[in-house]
Design goal:
By secondary structure, the protein is an alpha/beta fold. Helix content is 24%, strand content 29%.
Length: 267
Amino acid sequence: MTWKNYDVVAHDGDLVQLLGRRHKSQFITLKAGAIFQTHRGEIKHDEIIGKPWGSRLYSHTGSPFFLMRPGLADLITEIKRNTQIIYPKDIGYIAMVMGIGPGIHVLEAGTGSGALTTAFAYLVGDSGKVISYEQREQMQNLARNNLRRVGLLDRVDLKLGDAANGFEERGVDAVFYDLPNPHDYISQAKAALKLGGFLGMILPTTNQVNKVLPELLVNNFAFVEVCELMLRFYKPDWERLRPTDRMVAHTGFLVFARSVMERPEED
């Protein structure tokens, strides 16, 4: 049993989310005989196994928890990390624009902690594949552990390598860069992509975007899109509905383009 395939009740081996007061959450993998320990008390895994999702549980000190199946956004937000991750608000749009779904083969450069890798692996299904390149072995090991924890490692090929040296793959459906200087590697993405395929990237500053745009034209990419996404939550109190005090604003500029045989003429 893994996070990919759940029953109506929690089973031994399931990755579960325990939601406590003020939406504080804990993620644990159920194991018969184990004990979940927290500053708010202990819960035996045997008392969780077999319970329906949404059940209320109590620690030995009486603190309440709700048993939940983790959502993809929950797992990504709480992922173990050494660097900044790509947030769910951006990942959702990236996946929609680039058509990431069952059977798709997507190549990623800049694995990092594996947040986007996890989302891609979930979306491509058992018939798709994610190939993810990373220069730093320590970061790759962290991503491998994160993917193994959610049962998605079998859908990902993790490779140590530098985008400057190009990629072994040819004819992939999509390429995504999470690199500080993607403008240096546009030709490498072009070689790996099938014609009509998607190239995407995330960049924190306009300076980097300015360097990317001319390289896309030189390498016969068209239909270029540059955007950023804002996300604002509201306090769910029907008597005093208003925005929360903090907002996830600018996280990065998203750039998308399509690989074409030759550049279209200027309008």
